[in-house]
Each structure stands twice: as structure tokens, then as C-alpha cells.
Amino acid sequence: MHADNLNVFYGKAQALHDIDINVHDGEIVALVGRNGVGKSTLIKSICGLLPTRAGRRMLRGRDITSEPPYVTARLGIAYVPDNRQIFPNLTTEENLRLATIRARPGAWYLDRVYTLFPRLRERASFAGQVLSGGEQQMLAIGRALLLNPVLLLLDEPTEGLAPVVVDQLVDALRIIHAAGVAMLIVEQNFRMTEALASRQYVMDSGRIVWSGSTEEFGSQRAEVESLVFF
Ligand SMILES: Nc1ncnc2c1ncn2[C@@H]1O[C@H](COP(=O)(O)OP(=O)(O)OP(=O)(O)O)[C@@H](O)[C@H]1O
Ligand SMILES: [Mg+2]
């Protein structure tokens, strides 16, 4: 995925300014920054949930600038929102089966998701609303995988989760990555993104203010932190 000079507005208010961002096939990239700088706005605009006023988005050589979310999903972009958007009155399995209805053909199917997240198999007949935060996050990721994405957009997947659950998620994301799925992960949890991502983008006030490899991110930590005072 390649976005070029993206400009996104909420009404008259400009939320994103001249954003350039790439996620290559099979790559894990992190997007970090303070609250309210535009991280969620950026990943929503990548999957077409928000219209682009200027700029261009490409997926594997195809121009997706004007494509709505159901088209970008069919082309392989799966979005895992920060509020997870589980259907509360459907069971875990019903939530998952719904995702298979419009899925692209591919290697991810229900049993493989249950193998990745054994906890979901145990909770298959429980309503979405009684799942723990970690289980809901697993369900949201499992549902996205059933679309057979080439790119997974994850908005703060570890927010509010206990460290042991975060570790389980990191292990699962490694397996998903090994299966060839690229990811753009919005995170405040550096421990997680440093363990997973090969590159990092830092946002402030609707702009990308720093980008580089995760090694550079580590060695220039003081400079990066001064840009955004985490
Ligand atoms: N639906 C909306 N209508 C108008 N303004 C919005 C809307 N959603 C977000 N904004 C504004 O756009 C800016 C970026 O918000 P966004 O949610 O993308 O930030 P974020 O980096 O994801 O923050 P957080 O860390 O809190 O999730 C903020 O100033 C926010 O107030
Ligand atoms: Mg956000």
C-alpha cells in the first residue's frame, strides 16, 4: 500500500496534511503519536472510510483513492477498529461466520482462526458482549483475517489489555505476519511495536514528522520523543 500526499478533512477542519506512507507487501509498520494527532483518521482514510480531499492511495499498483471500504476490503485491506465493533448479541462464532460471507478466497478459514486463537474456540458459543477485552480483540482480528487480507490495519490493538494478553497478541501477530499478511499498527505501546515492526512513522498534528527503521527509532529515541513528547 502506498499513499501519496494525502489530505483529509472533517468538514472545514483539515485533519491530515500531505501524508506519504508506504507499507510494502508482507511488512509490519508502526504508526505512533500522541492522542488526537490523526492516527485513526489516517488508517480510516487508507481503507476508504474517510474520503481523500487531495492525494492518492494505491494498493498493489491499483488506484484505490476513490474506492469505498467494501471495495478496499474485497481488494484485501482489512480494518480492525479501536473500538473492535463486535456484534454484542451474536456469539463469537456468529461474529466470525458473518465475516466469511463476503470474504476473498484464500488461506484463512474458521478453523485456522480457532487454531490461532484457541481461546475463541472455547468461547465460540458465548455472546460478543460477555467476552473480555482481550477476547474481543482476538475476535476482531480473527474476523479481519477471514477476509483473507493482504494488509491488516490495526488501531491500538493492545489498548487496555493486560501484559500477558498483549504477549499473546504479539505471538499471534507474528504468526499472521509469517503467513504473509502486511500490517500497519497504530500503537502507544512501544514495547510491542519495537518487537514487531521493521519501520515506524511518527505523527504530530496531522503530519508525519519522523519515519525510519525500528533500529533508527531506538537509536534516535530522545530526538523522536522531543518531537512528540510522549
Ligand atoms: N468524526 C470527527 N469529526 C470531526 N473531527 C474529528 C472526528 N474524528 C476525529 N476528529 C479530529 O481529528 C483529529 C485527529 O483525530 P484521530 O482520532 O485521528 O486521532 P488519533 O491520533 O487516533 O487519537 P487517539 O490517540 O486519541 O486515538 C483530532 O483533532 C480529532 O478531534
Ligand atoms: Mg485513534
Automatic annotation (TrEMBL):
InterPro entries: AAA+_ATPase (IPR003593), ABC_transporter-like_ATP-bd (IPR003439), ABC_transporter-like_CS (IPR017871), BCAA_Transport_ATP-bd_LivF (IPR052156), P-loop_NTPase (IPR027417). Signal peptide: none annotated. Keywords: Amino-acid transport, ATP-binding, Cell membrane, Membrane, Nucleotide-binding, Transport. GO terms for biological process: L-amino acid transport. GO terms for molecular function: ATP binding; ATP hydrolysis activity; branched-chain amino acid transmembrane transporter activity. CDD domains: ABC_TM1139_LivF_branched (cd03224). Residues 1-230 form the ABC transporter domain. This is ABC transporter ATP-binding protein. It comes from Hydrogenophaga aromaticivorans. The lineage of its organism: Bacteria, Pseudomonadati, Pseudomonadota, Betaproteobacteria, Burkholderiales.
